[in-house]
Amino acid sequence: MLRALLSDNLPRSRWLAAVLIVIVLALALAPFLFPGAKSLNVAVKICVFIVLAASYDLLLGYTGIVSFAHTMFFGIGGYGVAIALARLAPDWGAVALGTGAGVLVAVVLAALIGLFSLRVRTIFFAMITLAVASAFAILASQLSGLTGGEDGLNYRVPEALRPAFRLVEGDVLGVAVNGRIMTYYLVFLVSLALVLAMMRVVSSPFGSVLMAIRENAFRAEAIGYRTVVYRTVASCIAAAAAAVAGALLALWLRHTGPDTTLSFDLMIDILLMVVIGGMGTMYGAVLGATLLILAQNYLQDAMAAASQAASGVPLVANLLHPDRWLLWLGLLFILCVYFFPTGIVGRLRAARGRG
Amino acid sequence: MLETEGLTIRFGGHAAVDGVSCAFHPGTLTAIVGPNGAGKTTYFNLISGQLAATSGRVRLKGRDITTLAAPRRARLGLGRAFQLTNLFPNLTALENVRLAVQANSGRVLDLLGRASRHRDLADRAMAHLAAVALADRAAAVSATLSHGDQRKLEVAILLALEPDVFMFDEPTAGMSVDDVPAVLDVIAAIKARGDKTILLVEHKMDVVRALADRIVVLHHGQLVADGPPAEIIASDVVREAYLGGAAEAGHG
Ligand SMILES: Nc1ncnc2c1ncn2[C@@H]1O[C@H](COP(=O)(O)OP(=O)(O)OP(=O)(O)O)[C@@H](O)[C@H]1O
Ligand SMILES: [Mg+2]
């Protein structure tokens, strides 16, 4: 049963399995374990970024494609829902239409980019995606009539997802099950389904061809695989997943703008999540996204506390000042990449091999 | 079956393969010999589609395939093993062969099936590994295999494609003497089936003598001799063009 759910792609490390179970359980019970607006917001971000990182791993880790357009597809999904909800009625029909249109546009765009440019070398393809994504970001801010420009769009979500909505009278386990929690579970369940679906794809016969292409595209062609077709299909799947992730975040935030979906910082975050977690493993995306989002949200708090504690020691207090958090995060990345070149997942699996 | 007509490729001004016309027939093993740099590998690349011809034609089963891409030619029945080992380095030996079996099975755009559930594909891959005496290394990552085992894996991948035309490019080059018979047996077994077209580039004259039904000699990209082994080996043109060159170059 579990084996089937994971598509035979087992963690292959006791520690990894344990960490994964903790993450999934914590996310599944987040509204009850960590009540409060901030922690739920962090949990949503973790879910959404796990999908984003996993779909990016499909490209980078499994197929060997370097793309900088992933946040563009994320943004397309987000704007799809945002525009539909802002223009039409705030109901489920608009959500479905916005998501559907977003996914469709993302897939068509991914297919076009793929068919026109996946023949060229990896580095040129990366440059092309960068150019297309930049053009898209400019377009999104210019078409302010449609997208709200730099300010983005604010909109209402369907009734059942609004804070005032109550699923049941009274509390469940001391928590009022309101529309925010409903939204959280929508995000959680769709994200879970998407990750399991992508795990299925990478362990399918199709997925094994992707790995062959990553390993040796020349030989893959020589045994009869048309690599452009496979790479393009992989790009389309990744784009569709990213668009759905964008739609989920749009439902949660009730606001969509360039900063929430299209910024280049997000692209770098996704890249780091996949590399730190471990490329070509899917589980790496789960670990990487969780770790990075937690660090981004709580490292500053932890440092403020530490800085307070060290207030007597001048240099240390200064180094631990919350404004230095990016420095520490950067250091953490460098250490991670240096000591775990195969990512956290690779490290855990190697430990099992020796132990 | 397989035929080239005036096949030519120029790199800059230099014609690496120069107007080669030759037909290869089912049930026949043709050895292609010639000194280092004669254009043998380049001729193979033109036939299997890794390089595009400057002029001339390639026909397979009467069909003009000159402009088709390599994957199409592979699916039409042209199988190629490479002179320089050319594997999927971080995948296991079994997975290397399974990918070739899968390419040949048509079940290639199956996105949601589980590869591990296609027992038949893995079983067939295993049989091909066994054919080259590599079954016990099935789970090893191919980059960790010895050079000889990698050469055998290269042959197993070709077997797994089940092509109509087998193209071997120095399959035993650099192998230890112990490993060579396994590969030669495989080639002999394919030949014994009687319906396959086999092209073999080989420097070792004893191997050529043992396996070839016919020898084609390339020199400076041109076909300079073509005939039964005994006749070709005895001829002057080969002694000049090939044996002279091979003696100084060894086998590369
Ligand atoms: N891609 C290329 N670009 C330029 N020159 C090339 C290219 N490929 C091959 N050549 C040249 O074509 C000639 C034939 O090379 P080829 O590899 O076909 O020889 P070969 O007969 O296979 O030799 P060997 O016995 O050493 O394998 C050589 O002079 C080589 O330098
Ligand atoms: Mg050669």
From TrEMBL, chain A:
The chain crosses the membrane at residues 15-34, 66-86, 92-116, 123-143, 184-207, 228-250, 270-295, 326-346. Keywords: Cell membrane, Membrane, Transmembrane, Transmembrane helix. It holds the Pfam family BPD_transp_2. GO terms for molecular function: branched-chain amino acid transmembrane transporter activity. It comes from Vineibacter terrae. The keyword Transmembrane applies. This is Branched-chain amino acid ABC transporter permease. The keyword Ligase does not apply. PANTHER family: ABC TRANSPORTER ATP-BINDING PROTEIN (PTHR30482:SF17), HIGH-AFFINITY BRANCHED-CHAIN AMINO ACID TRANSPORT SYSTEM PERMEASE (PTHR30482). It is found in: Cell membrane. GO terms for cellular component: plasma membrane. It comes from the Bacteria. The lineage of its organism: Bacteria, Pseudomonadati, Pseudomonadota, Alphaproteobacteria, Hyphomicrobiales. It is a multi-pass membrane protein.
TrEMBL record, chain B:
Gene3D superfamilies: P-loop containing nucleotide triphosphate hydrolases. It comes from the Bacteria. Residues 2-245 form the ABC transporter domain. Keywords: ATP-binding, Nucleotide-binding, Transport. The keyword Nucleotidyltransferase does not apply. GO terms for molecular function: ATP binding; ATP hydrolysis activity. InterPro entries: AAA+_ATPase, ABC_AA/LPS_Transport, ABC_transporter-like_ATP-bd, ABC_transporter-like_CS, BCA_ABC_TP_C, P-loop_NTPase. Transmembrane segments: none annotated. Pfam families: ABC_tran, BCA_ABC_TP_C. Belongs to the ABC transporter superfamily. This is ABC transporter ATP-binding protein.
